Every structure is written in C-alpha cells, then in structure tokens.
Amino acid sequence: MEEFLQAIQPLWCPHEGQRAFLVQPARLKVLACGRRWGKTEVCAIQIVFALTRKVPTKHIILAPTLDQAKLIFDRVVEFLHLMPTVPAGLLFQCDWDKAIKVTKSPHPKLRLGAHTVVARSGHLGRSLRGNEATHIVVDEAAYVPEELITEVAMPMLATTDGHLTMISTPHGLNHFWRFFQMGQRGEHGIWSRRAPSAESPHVRREFLEVQKALISSRAFRVEYEAEFLDSSGQVFRTESVEACIVPRLTSPPQPPYSIGIDWARYADYTAICVLAGTRQTCDLVEIVRIHGLPWKELVRHAARLVARYPSARVLCDSTGVGDPLLEMLRELSPGQAVKGRPFKRRVQVGAHRQPRLDDREPVAPNGA
Questions:
Q1: Strand order of the sheet with strand 282-290?
Q2: For residue 262, which of 204, 196, 318, 345 has the smallest C-alpha distance?
Q3: Secondary structure (3-state) at 10
Q4: pLDDT at position 123, please?
Q5: Are residues 138 and 164 in contact, defined by beta-carbon separation less than 8 angstroms?
Q6: Measured between alpha carbons, how far is 311 from 213 in angstroms, rounded to an integer?
Q7: Cα-Cα-Cα-Cα dihedral of 244, 249, 250, 256, to 10°?
Q8: What share of the chain is helix, strand, coil (3-state, %, to 5)?
Q9: Per DSSP, what are the bridge partners of residue 91?
Q10: pLDDT digits (tens, 9 = 90+) for 69-83
C-alpha cells in the first residue's frame, strides 16, 4: 500500500488519518468518521489499490440507499480514469480508458479485466443473498440494519477469506458501536478508529468553530467529533441496559408481579412491562409495544395482558389523556390493583434512576 500511495501522490495524497486506515492490514475495519473527513475518497482508494493488483477481486459497496453507494462507486471510476497520468513504471501499464467497462443497469457495475465493483442498496438485504465478494464496503454502516452486516454481508466473505470495511458517522450505541468496541478491544482481529473532522486539513478550523456555535453540543460531538452517544432523550445508557440482559431466565418467573403502562398513540409507542420480583432482584417477564390503535382497543389490549397476571400491581401513566385511560382499564380489570401516577419528564426520571440501573439495581417507583 505504501508504494501505491507514493505512486499516486500526483493524483491524491492522504492525510494522516486516511493513511492510518489504508495501511492497516486487518480484514475487518471499523471507522467512525466525522463529517467531511474524507471517507468516500479513502474507501475509493482502498478499492482502486486492489484493482491494480494481478489477483482478481470482487468488491461490493453497500449503503442505506443506492445513491449513497454510488458516491464511492463514482469516485472509484474517477480515480481509474486518472491512472494514465501516473508516471510510467510506478503502476502496471494498460489502456485504462478502454479497459474500464461501466454499466448502470440494473445497478452500477464496473469491470476492469477480471476485477469487478458493484454498488448496491442495503434496503432489501434478501436480494443480495448468494453473492460472493473479496471485499465489502458498508458505507453509513450505523444506518443499515444489523442483519445486513451479520446475515448478508459477512457470509459473502466466507469462502474468499475477504475483507469487510464498515465506515459511518456514529448513530447512538447500536450495532456499529458494538463492532467499534470489539475493535478497540482487539477482538476477532477487528481494527477500529475514530476519525474526527478536524483530522482533515481540508476542514477549516474556523468552519468547525462556527458549527460548534450554531448546533447543539451533542450534535457537534456526534457529527464532527465522531463520538458515540446514546440517542437523544434516552433515559438509560445503552451499555447499562445491555449489562442487565441475559440470554434466558435461570428459573421460571414467580410472583409478586408488577406491571407498568406508559400510554401513547401516534407520535410514540404505548409500552407495557411486566416484572417478577422485588427491588432486590427481579426479572423482566414480558414487554409489549403498541402503536396506532384507537384508545378503546389500546385499553382492551392492556386489560387482556393484565388479566394474565391476576395478582399483579399495575401502575399507569395518568398524565393528560392517561387519566381517563386509567379509569377505563380499572373498569375492564375488576379486582386488580390498578393505580395511576403522573410520569415525570424523561430527563428528570433518568437523572434520578440512572445510577440504580448502572449498578444493576431494579428500578421501581417509590412505594411500588
């Protein structure tokens, strides 16, 4: 790679962060990028390098949409058409313009001798199954379904011992963050790196200062500093929640049962959670999300669930529209201990309860 970068220096010169990415030999690379860092170009150069080797390669570029995947694809084509300007002797010589074959339908595809590059949308992963590749680039990997990476992309590399590149702006603590963390720990040969926008010499410091003043601190940290932060408005940290998750219950759930209901209809989901146990130790037995139902049907749905736990204590949100819903649920659940309580704003609740979850202590309202 170093010799290749030296050869194409008249065309393109990487900045320090791009060079660190390109010379890294790991088969699975994860790069968390700030805006305008140069991820499109660095991925294109990575592909062009392989296309100039003698061993045939097959590259697949995936992204949330085909338009996004085409950004890297088009840059690859542009770089290849510039290859004749590289001094003779530094790269193998051929009639590049005649050797490059590009078709646009049904999706962009480039042929260069025995090499191929294809750009595809990751929207319908099932249409990609059965393909084989030596290298897959997943652009904006934080915004594609996890299954596209684990169940579609990675199996394509099984018989080729190929490479996988995941590159994206962070988007909460999701699957992309988990892959990044594996790279930080050096697990399974994964390499990962943060790439803030300031690393690029083409991003002016004055521009970053203006952006920092105009947008929220959280948005700036994610978009330009490539930091992984929980989703805005999330009460509990993702890693705290995941630390409490077990693959299966060690024993069948036993009373006492507690049921919490947070009502919503269109803008959000009604959430119903069933806990078994006490403050000292409890299990999440059941969790249900409901969206878009009429209020009466929504309450009937909740009543059917409550009826499965006759001895349960039920606590409902009685804020706003929740008060009449509470009365409806009581009518449909005679004999059940159904109570209401105004739920506080999430940020207030989260500030009070987050330490308990971080310590893996069950969270329950006072008196519940």
A1: 282-290, 270-277, 257-262, 313-317, 337-341
A2: 318
A3: coil
A4: 76
A5: yes
A6: 54
A7: 90
A8: 40, 20, 40
A9: none
A10: 999 999 999 999 888
**Alpha-carbon span 272 to 289, nearest angstrom:** 7
> 2 and 80 in contact (C-beta within 8 Å)?
no
Sole residue written with tokens 């249409």:
127
173: Cα within 13 Å, side-chain hemisphere: 13
Residue that the structure tokens 């652009």 belong to: 139
Rounded Cα distance between 20 and 327, Å, is 62
DSSP string, 207-244: HHHHHHHHS-HHHHHHHTT----PPTT-SS-HHHHHHT
For residue 103, what pLDDT is reported? 95
User: What is the distance between the alpha carbons of residues 41 and 49, in angstroms, rounded to a whole number?
Assistant: 12
Task: Return d(Cα 287, Cα 265) in angstroms, integer.
Answer: 17
Q: What is the mean pLDDT of the chain?
A: 86
User: Could you tell me the two tokens for 309?
Assistant: 């736990």
349 pLDDT exceeds 50? no
96 vs 36, more confident: 36
Query: Tokens standing for 202?
Result: 């083409």
Dihedral sign for Cα 60, 62, 66, 72, please: negative
Sheet holding 163-168, edge to edge: 100-103, 109-112, 115-121, 58-63, 135-139, 163-168, 28-33, 190-195
Token pair listed for 224: 């330009």
How many other CB atoms sit within 10 Å of the CB of residue 190?
A: 20
Q: Hey, which residues does 177 pair with through a beta bridge?
A: none
In DSSP terms, 270 is beta-bridged to 290
Phi, psi of 215 (to 5 degrees): -110, 170
pTM score of the predicted model? 0.68
Which residue, chain included where needed, has tokens 């968390």?
32
Domains of the chain: 1-224 (3.40.50.300), 247-341 (3.30.420.240)
Name the token pair of 254. 């036993």
In degrees and rounded to multiples of 5, residue 337 shows phi and psi of: -85, 85
